Structures are given as structure tokens and as C-alpha cells.
Amino acid sequence: MEKKPIALACRLDSERAIKLSRRIFEFLVQKGEIVYLETRIAPKIFPHNGMDLGEMNEDNIKFIIIIGGDGSILRVANGLSQKSPPPILGVNVGSIGFLDESNERIIFKDLSRVLNGQYSLEVCTKITAYIVKNSGEIKLSNALNEVLIISSKSSKVLQISIKIDKIFLNRSYLDGVIISTATGSTAYNLSAGGAIVNPNMSIMQITPLNSFARSGLKPLIVPIDSEIEIQLLRPRLDAKIVIDGQQTIKRIAPNTMIRIRKANSQNKFIRFKGSYYTRLRKKIIGTVRRVPIDDSPEE
Questions:
Q1: Cα distances (angstroms) measured from residue 83 to each of 71, 87, 108, 267, 282
Q2: Which of 28, 57, 126, 253 supports an S-S bond with 81, CB 3.0-4.6 Å?
Q3: 3-state secondary structure of 213
Q4: What is the DSSP pairing of strand 257-271 with strand 120-133?
Q5: Residues 148, 43 share a domain
Q6: d(CA 71, CA 95)
Q7: Which domain holds residue 279?
Q8: For residues 94 and 69, is the Cβ–Cβ distance under 8 A?
């Protein structure tokens, strides 16, 4: 049986990431692996082994290594084939990189573990936004983290109406609203006051941005199979849709309806035992370093 290749992608604006990519490429070749490089980095490492992200799927790629931070993972996840994309191993270079499993200090040890099959796969559900027109729905790109709907003018607030599964929930004045996945719960959603959700849970989370005090909209978690409808109500005020911080759709006109549903696509991440809560503690929530022995309350 022909050996399935491994793919390699990285951020181009970091010489540190490019140098590490070169070292990983050489390490894998020495291990007897076939390695394909994302087309845009191939000229910097080995020009003859370039491959477009959109051509990569589970049938032709064993897994893809992404060197960078969360932004790099989101960019690559959006560019990969959306039909059975290959598993992702994220390698953090310089930023928080919550989605990353490894870093430049331990990557070669971690790669040996992966090549020996000592890992598990974390399956992450994605969501899709649709712009509703009289002629039907216009599908936008899938989101691994979130769909953000925000006012086109930073000094002006939107008025929106929200329905869940065709049932009216709320009408609010606000700067915007985030619809996040469980994976995206630790991203913009968390900064906006949403909850942290284990990525193994199949949910969507609705989190308002600076909602007017009397409008009542609060962060809400709903099942992943729900359909969320958001209508832009305020006259003469356009909105923007931002998908995973990577793609922006501008000038969404007043009265437009936006639907968000579970996507027909998933991303799989290579993980090691117990890694989620370890990453959560180290990169997001922190912990008290040491509790003093005499730290008792006053009687």
C-alpha cells in the first residue's frame, strides 16, 4: 500500500516559523515520510512538493502540521477541502496559540508520538452563515470559531431580532453579536463574556456585544442542530459579517436576514491525553501558584 503523505503549512510573515518548518520537513523526510508543502511556502523549502490547501483531504493526506498561532490554524482550516479535511497538528510559534497542541520546544518529540500512533482525535463541529434573499440562501464560508455580525459604523449600534428554530427570542440594540462554536468559545466569545465550553460538546453560543441594558439579551447556549435567525432592523445602518476573523462580508443591508446552522464539515485536531484542560489552565484561566499554609479566614 502506498504511504500517505504528511502536509506542512506555516505563516509566511515569521522567519522563525519558516525555519522551524524547514527543520520539520527535514525531520520527516529522514523518517521516510513523504511531505507536501502548502503551495505558498513550498518555494522557501522544497519547490517541487507544493500542493494547494483545497486539494488536501483525508484520502490523500495523513495529517497536516500548521506552524504559527490560532490565526494560522483558522486560515488553513478555511482553505482546506471542506469535505473530510485531514487532521490538524498545530505548532505554536510565539503567540498564545490555544488551538495548538505542540510548540517549537517539544515538536520533534510530539511528532515521534504521532508517527507511532500515540494520539487521539478531537472532532470539532463547524457552523455556516447564510444570507437570505428572495431567490434563496447565499452560503458563506464555514466557521470553526465564530460568525460575528457587527455594525458597519463603530459609533452606531445595530437593532436586531433573534429567532431560534423560528421562535422569537429577543429584539436588542447592540454593537454586534457573536455566534460561536464550542471550539470558538475560548476566542472572541470569551472576551465578550461568553462561557468556556469543552470542544467535544455539540453546541452554538449566542453572545451579545455591548447590548443596551434594557434589551435583556444575555449569552445563551443552544444545541448545534438549532437554526439561528438574525434580522437587521435599524434603517440606514449596514452591518458586517466576519467569519473566524479571516473573511469579512461588508455592507449587509438593513432588513437582511442571516441564518446560522451547523455546517456539513468538521475539523479534527491531533491531541494527547489530558491536553484540553492542561491547555486551558496554562493559556487561558491560569491558577494560584501556591496556597499559603496559614491562609485561613479570620474567626
A1: 21, 12, 29, 10, 33
A2: 57
A3: helix
A4: antiparallel
A5: no
A6: 10
A7: 6-119+272-285
A8: yes
Q: pTM of the entire structure?
A: 0.92
Domain assignment present for residue 296? The answer is no
H/E run at residue 5: none
- Take residue 3 and report the three cell numbers written for it: 504511504
Residue 84 CA to chain centroid, in angstroms?
A: 16
Report the domain count for the chain: 2
Per-residue pLDDT of the chain (299 residues; tens, 9 = 90+): 568 999 999 999 999 999 999 999 999 999 999 999 999 999 999 998 999 999 999 999 999 999 999 999 999 999 999 999 999 999 999 778 999 999 999 999 999 999 999 999 999 999 999 999 888 999 999 999 999 999 999 889 999 999 999 999 999 999 999 999 999 999 999 999 999 999 999 999 999 999 887 777 899 999 999 999 999 999 999 999 999 999 999 999 999 999 999 999 999 999 998 789 999 999 999 887 777 777 778 77
Alpha-carbon distance values, 225 to 85, 195, 289 (Å): 21, 19, 41
| 1 located within any domain | no
Select which of 13, 59, 70, 100 is catalytic.
70
In terms of Cα–Cα distance, which of 174, 250, 274, 269 is closest to 219?
174
Q: In terms of domains, do 110 and 142 share one?
A: no
294 labelled catalytic: no
Provide φ and ψ at 278, rounded to 5°.
Answer: -65, -45
Give me the CATH number covering residue 53.
Answer: 3.40.50.10330
